[in-house]
TrEMBL record:
Name listed for the protein in its UniProt record: Acg family FMN-binding oxidoreductase
Organism listed in the record: Amycolatopsis silviterrae
Protein origin, superkingdom: Bacteria
InterPro entries recorded: Nitroreductase, Nitroreductase-like, Nitroreductase/BluB
PANTHER family assigned: NAD(P)H NITROREDUCTASE RV3131-RELATED, NADPH NITROREDUCTASE
Domain Nitroreductase: 239-303
Xref: NCBIfam families: Rv3131_FMN_oxido (NF047509)
Length: 329
């Protein structure tokens, strides 16, 4: 058999890819993507109709989410013994295209991360006091040259700025209405059978950084106490050389690969991006911390003390697109 020749993806293989993509993390669990399978190629389509004007006014988190979905798509294709290359159209709604052909078994590390896809959850709670070992190995999962990930040595400045952002978002009535709209009520007598949104059960009464998303009732610790809480966690800041569409996708890929590596090691994690959308916040943070680029996300991880609830997901049939007007040729 000539493994250099493309071979169309079978329906069962398409289903495997769709299931993997469906489990990717996304801003407010909005799942802003579609898949279009064309023979042996798979388009990851950005759903630009998903708009969060208060949380994500420029659509950065939407692209970051698509990058996380792309990481899952690549890992799933490799698990199917497909060799892959990825191209990035410069315009249109197709965020990336994964080109596949029959190939060899995946590397062990990629297979381990693929198997962690279904176990990954957003953990918006305090972690156990046990420290995270081998943080350097987590950082080594970042393979995108334009993405820089590092654990900040000092959290005092970060605490000061996150505390300010927390107070801003807590008092922003329009933001709070938007967050409530994207809260999925999935249990009790008022359950709505949601297929997207942040599950209500994932919210707690804890302050940052555990809270993740700031609601009206989220406690705001003083800067000293918040710094103590941040210092007790493992934090990774993801930065990029520039602020382009490709940079946002690459950051999402890097973040998801690290998150899956952490999951495979029995760790839990969640992402902070909310404060980074305040005007001037990222630039100011980059200047004060001496960052090597613009921050795109803050990843927190640690040892869980309880199970995180699963998030609702769109039916796989809605994930697969069959007609993409305007797709670049």
């Amino acid at each position: 058999m000539d493994n250099s020749a493309p071979a169309d993806l079978a329906p069962a293989e398409t289903a495997t890819l769709a299931r993997a993509v469906s489990r990717a993390p996304s801003v407010h669990n909005s799942q802003p993507w579609r898949l279009c399978v064309r023979g042996s190629d798979v388009d990851l389509v950005e759903r630009t109709e998903i708009v969060l004007p208060r949380h994500d006014p420029e659509g950065r988190d939407r692209l970051l989410s698509c990058g996380a979905a792309l990481a899952n798509l690549q890992l799933a294709a490799q698990a199917l013994r497909r060799d892959i290359t990825t191209s990035f159209p410069s315009h249109g709604d197709v965020a990336a295209t994964v080109h596949t052909r029959p190939g060899a078994a995946p590397a062990r590390a990629d297979l381990v991360r693929y198997r962690a896809i279904g176990r990954r959850r957003s953990y918006r709670r305090e972690f156990a006091s046990e420290p995270v070992d081998d943080v350097a190995q987590l950082l080594d999962t970042v393979e995108e040259p334009s993405v820089h990930a590092f654990a900040p040595a000092s959290v005092g400045v970060l605490a000061e700025m996150l505390g300010f952002a927390t107070r801003v978002f807590r008092s922003d009535a329009a933001y709070q209405r938007e967050l409530e709209t994207w809260t999925a009520h999935t249990f009790g007598r008022y359950a709505l059978g949601a297929v997207d949104g942040v599950p209500e059960a994932s919210f707690g009464d804890e302050p940052l950084p555990a809270a993740g998303l700031v609601r009206r009732t989220t406690p705001v610790p003083d800067d000293v106490r918040l710094a103590e809480r941040l210092a007790a966690e493992t934090l990774v800041v993801f930065c990029t050389d520039d602020d382009t569409r490709r940079a946002h996708l690459d950051a999402g890929v890097a973040l998801q690969r690290m998150w899956l590596e952490a999951t495979a090691r029995g760790l839990a994690g969640s992402v902070l991006t909310q404060p980074l959308h305040l005007t001037g916040f990222r630039e100011h943070l980059a200047e004060r911390l001496g960052l090597p680029g613009l921050p795109q996300a803050i990843f927190r991880c640690g040892h869980p003390v309880s199970a995180a609830p699963p998030s609702p997901r769109l039916p796989l049939g809605e994930l697969l697109a069959h007609d993409l007007p305007g797709r670049p040729e």
